[in-house]
Write a structure and sequence with these properties.
Oligomer: single chain
Number of strands: 0
Shape: elongated
Radius of gyration: 19 Å
């Protein structure tokens, strides 16, 4: 039911912009990898050491 209503919005946007259909994919891709990419190497790197040291 989610992809149905989203398709409608994408179709309408697609009419105005040729890069609207992938809007859902590129929007989530740049956002997910953008945050997790920085949080993954940074968070696990620092918190991982701090948690292990504090836990021990």
């Amino acid at each position: 039911m989610n992809p149905l209503p989203r398709d409608s919005a994408v179709n309408k946007s697609l009419s105005k912009k040729p890069k609207s259909p992938p809007s859902g994919v590129p929007v989530f891709k740049p956002w997910k990898p953008a945050q997790p990419a920085k949080l993954q190497p940074f968070k696990p790197a620092q918190p991982a050491k701090i948690v292990m040291q504090k836990a021990k």
